Amino acid sequence: MKVLIKGAGDLASGIACRLRNSGYEILMTELAVPTTVRRTVAFSRAVYEGTCEVEGIEGVLVGSLKQITKVQKEGKIAVLIDETVAILRTYQPQVLIDAVLAKKNTGTSISDAPLVIGVGPGFEAGKDVHVVIETKRGHDLGRVIRQGSAIPNTGVPGDIGGYTTERLLRAGAAGVFHPAVTIGDLVEKGQIVAETAGIPIYAQMSGIVRGMLQEGVEVSCGMKVGDIDARCELQHCYSVSDKARAIGGGVLEAIAAFEHDVHRR
């Protein structure tokens, strides 16, 4: 069964890891200039580096159907730069997962594949996708929704280590992003951690840098560019998060149920 995942950020990559470990062949599409903050646990990094690894699974940048097949036969995840997901027509996956996390539907249709899964808010199960996976931290995280939508975006990041908005780093001006620290570094509240257009970005709390945008990326004012974790666990910087793992479990449940229904027909 072929699975196509739109997006290759950290949550999409958590989904990809659970599915690949369950034996599915995975193709992920990504932008030409990814803006993933948690880059150390995202297959989007392959766009910049050619290859990358997340929890022992290798992602490889590809440019053709032939390369996709070769990479998948090697047990790796194929990553394709395809901003409009044009590959959908020729690849024809059995499962399409929209894990862009845009908080809105950017063009996914329920007719795109036999099973279409929308991750997070912006989708309605039974209308533009077959099922929706809840992404909001809490009791329903990872729930498979077969009718209706996920909880709307609140604009407030989830609580990690007792912090919400303080843990995020945002650009103070539009321009080219230049980090002053790297993922895994310990920082103190008030420390300059990056800058854009000469405007410094200060840490709003002390902790470990869990995510940091790629050097040289063009950003807009207010854009999320980093993430600080008060728990200061270095291994958290290099492993799939509890949230991504739970969402991946919901996706796996939806696919397993779909396969069961197909076999019963």
Secondary structure topology:
Layout: E1 2-6, H1 10-21, E2 25-30, H2 45-49, E3 51-54, E4 57-62, H3 65-73, E5 77-81, H4 88-91, E6 95-98, E7 115-119, E8 131-133, E9 144-145, E10 168-170, E11 175-179, E12 186-187, E13 192-196, E14 199-202, E15 207-212, E16 218-219, E17 224-229, H5 242-264
Parallel strand pairs: 1-2, 1-6, 2-5, 4-5, 6-7, 7-8
Antiparallel strand pairs: 3-4, 8-9, 10-17, 11-13, 11-16, 12-15, 13-14, 15-17
Helix pairs in contact: 1-5
Q: Spatial order of the strands in the main sheet?
A: 3-4-5-2-1-6-7-8-9
Topology as H/E string? EHEHEEHEHEEEEEEEEEEEEH
Query: What share of residues is helical?
Result: 10-25%
**Cα distance spanning the termini:** 17 Å
Radius of gyration: 18 Å
Beta-sheet strand percentage? 25-35%
Q: Structural class, judged by helices and strands?
A: alpha/beta
* Mean pLDDT level: 96
Major β-sheet profile: 9 strands, mixed
Which descriptor suits the 3D outline? globular
* Overall strand count: 17
Poorly predicted sequence stretches spanning 5 or more consecutive residues: none
Description:
The chain has 265 residues and is of the alpha/beta class. The chain contains five helices and 17 strands. It has helices at residues 10-21, 45-49, 65-73, 88-91, 242-264; strands spanning 2-6, 25-30, 51-54, 57-62, 77-81, 95-98, 115-119, 131-133, 144-145, 168-170, 175-179, 186-187, 192-196, 199-202, 207-212, 218-219, 224-229. The protein has a nine-stranded mixed beta sheet with strand order 3-4-5-2-1-6-7-8-9, with helices on both faces. A four-stranded antiparallel beta sheet has the order 10-17-15-12, with no helix packed on it. A four-stranded antiparallel beta sheet has the order 14-13-11-16, with no helix packed on it. Strand 1 (2-6), helix 1 and strand 2 (25-30) form a beta-alpha-beta unit. 43% of the residues are buried. The mean pLDDT is 96.
